[in-house]
Amino acid sequence: MQNAIVKALINEEQIRLYFIDNTQLLRDICALNQELPKPLKLLLGKTISAMSILSGTLKGNQRMSIQVTLSNPHHMIFAEAEANGNVREYLNEELLRTSNIEEKSMQDLIGPSGMIRVIKGSEMNQFTSITDMPNQHITDDIANYFVKSDQTPTYLYSDIQLDNEASLLSSHALYAQLLPSAPPHLLSEVKMIVKANPDIFSKLNAKEASDSEEALIQLFGDAKIIGHSSSQFFCGCSKEMFYGILYSLSEEDIKRSMERNEDIEAFCHICGKTYTFEQKEMQQLF
Question: Three-class SS string for 219-234?
Answer without folding.
Answer: HHCCEEEEEEEECEEC
